[in-house]
Specification:
Largest sheet: 5 strands, antiparallel
CATH architecture of the largest domain: 2-Layer Sandwich
Mean pLDDT: 95
Helix content: 25-40%
Shape: globular
Strand order of the largest sheet: 4-5-10-6-7
Number of domains: 2
CATH class of the largest domain: Alpha Beta
Number of strands: 14
CATH topology of the largest domain: Uridine Diphospho-n-acetylenolpyruvylglucosamine Reductase, domain 3
Radius of gyration: 18 Å
Length: 266
């Protein structure tokens, strides 16, 4: 790892100021991707600005059927939250199966979506739930937030502050995890909302998480695993690596989608 200077920001204003003063600063929101990248010397920020101790980024708020998860909320906190479990148990189950206990107690939802790692779980949930990403400057609809592999609509000095969404009628998540890292080789989040069905896929796309329109159309007609029988997805645009070929990932998307629907309907 190259030398870096660590800062612990106490507020969003201080974090923005520290970044502006740095030669090549990076925000740190859990570090489950950034720190390993630095250890491999693939990234060498001059300064790390830690956001994990900013009070306004923490906490989960429930208002009727509306939920707001602060960006600094850890995966473990999401997994254990009774209010979330009552309205959207799928997101709690998703959080409970991210990495291992250490990862779940360090990683945050804000860091996960801001980094937009193609194998991360949360981007699929944010897309499928039609969530709104709140930042230090504005609000961004999920469909506009993820722009490509490790890419988002965030400006360089913009900080994710929260993710908000309304309770779906039904939702489920299923993933085929890498046996070592627990990252998703393929993860599929399915959500039925009053305005329709949304299906989002993580772990498979060359450009990161994406919506699967063919699966959405089939489930809009019948929200049942059997509605996906016979659907064959193309491998175009899917990742192929040492863990799985694009063709295998295409097969897994259909399989995980069926499991997600089955989980959603109980």
């Amino acid at each position: 790892m190259y030398q870096t200077t660590y800062h612990r920001a106490a507020s969003l204003e201080e974090a923005a100021k520290l970044l502006a003063q740095a030669d090549d600063g990076k925000f740190l929101a859990g570090g489950q991707t950034l720190i390993p990248t630095m250890k491999q010397r693939l990234a060498a920020p001059s300064d790390l600005i830690d956001l994990r101790h900013i009070p306004e980024l923490k906490g989960i708020t429930i208002n009727g059927s509306d939920m707001r998860i602060g960006a600094g909320t850890t995966h473990a906190e999401v997994a254990a939250h009774a209010g979330l479990a009552a309205l959207c148990p799928a997101i709690c189950r998703l959080a409970a199966h991210i990495g291992d206990p250490h990862v779940r107690h360090m990683g945050t939802i804000g860091g996960s979506i801001a980094n937009n790692d193609p194998a991360a779980d949360y981007p699929a949930a944010v897309l499928a739930l039609g969530a709104t990403v709140e930042t230090s400057k504005r609000t961004i609809a999920a469909d506009d937030f993820f722009t490509g592999l490790f890419g988002t609509a965030l400006e360089e000095d913009e900080i994710v502050t929260a993710v908000s969404f309304s309770a779906p009628e039904k939702a489920g998540y299923a993933k085929f995890p890498n046996p070592a890292s627990r990252y998703a080789l393929v993860g599929v989040f399915v959500a039925r909302r009053p305005e329709g069905v949304r299906v989002a896929v993580s772990g498979a796309g060359e450009d990161g998480a994406f919506r699967a329109s063919a699966l959405e159309d089939a489930l809009a007609r019948s929200f049942d695993p059997a509605a996906l029988d016979g659907i064959s997805l193309p491998s175009t645009g899917l990742m192929s690596d040492i863990h799985a070929s694009a063709e295998y990932r295409a097969h897994l998307i259909a399989v995980m989608a069926k499991r997600a629907v089955k989980a959603a309907i109980g």
